[in-house]
Amino acid sequence: MTAPVRGQNLTYTVANSLGAAVVTGVYSADNPIPIEAELCRQYAASRSVVREAVKMLTAKGLLGSRPRLGTWVQPESNWNLLDPDVLGWLLERKYEPALLVEFTELRLAVEPGAAALAARVAGAEEKAAIRSAIERMQAADRGDDDPLDSDIAFHVAVLRATRNRFYAQLTGFSATALRFSIRTTNRYKGVQLASIADHKKVADAIIAGKSAAAGEAMRKLIQEALDLILKREALQVTRRASANANR
């Protein structure tokens, strides 16, 4: 680890570095986090800064900490995987197909419902955000916007258009995971752009207030991505088995 750059929020810098180290396996139950004094030295930080960073990671489920017992790494089952920071650190680990599959399965359970609800309750402002995201995707197709950012903007806009605080809480998590997921599925498809037509079907249904159509269009969009991931991973398993058999 390196000392943080001056001028950054030191507490968040320490928390980010420690969090990434825990999730990527630098620290674990078998390789404990250094004692507080050592962390202070590594980061040129005060004890109060280190303690606050540890509190942040404890709230995310990564660490446990008690007076006179010190600080330890919690098992992965305790981690808050819906926290955007935790998810971002998870994605820094070696690529895990299961992580991508599980996230896409969650999207399949959540986003069609969000699209259906958005079609019922979205107001002019939310519909305008969805239109804007589609226009950005069209601009990206012309080379005038970022394909990944515009795609993410669309899915975030749909979640926000539900006017549901629980769906809205998923926007940070979704944006982080989608940045990884979309890149991967586009690579599998051999293209860098999402299907604008498929996304526009969702948008048009929401804007028209057609709840069932919006939900079904979103379901098809995500199911296609999940099918692609599962097919690709099955092919990789077959190739590895064939390679091992030929050794």
* Average of per-residue pLDDT values: 88
Tally of separate domains = 2
How much of the sequence lies in strands comes to under 5%
Q: Tally of extended strands? A: 2
CATH evolutionary superfamily of the largest domain:
GntR ligand-binding domain-like
CATH-derived architecture of the largest domain: Up-down Bundle
Helix content: 55-70%
The class by helix and strand makeup works out as mainly alpha
Largest sheet: 2 strands, antiparallel
Q: Provide the low-confidence segments as ranges.
A: 1-7
At CATH level 3, the topology of the largest domain is Four Helix Bundle (Hemerythrin (Met), subunit A)
Strands of the widest sheet, in order across it, are 1-2
Tell me the number of helical segments per DSSP (H or I, 4 or more residues long). 11
What integer value in Å does the Rg equal?
21 Å
Structure report:
This protein is mainly alpha-helical. It has eleven helices and two strands. It folds into two domains: 69 residues, Winged helix-like DNA-binding domain superfamily/Winged helix DNA-binding domain (Arc Repressor Mutant, subunit A); 151 residues, Four Helix Bundle (Hemerythrin (Met), subunit A). A two-stranded antiparallel sheet has the order 1-2. β1 and β2 form a beta hairpin. α5 runs antiparallel to α11 and α10 packs antiparallel against α11. The N terminus is likely disordered.
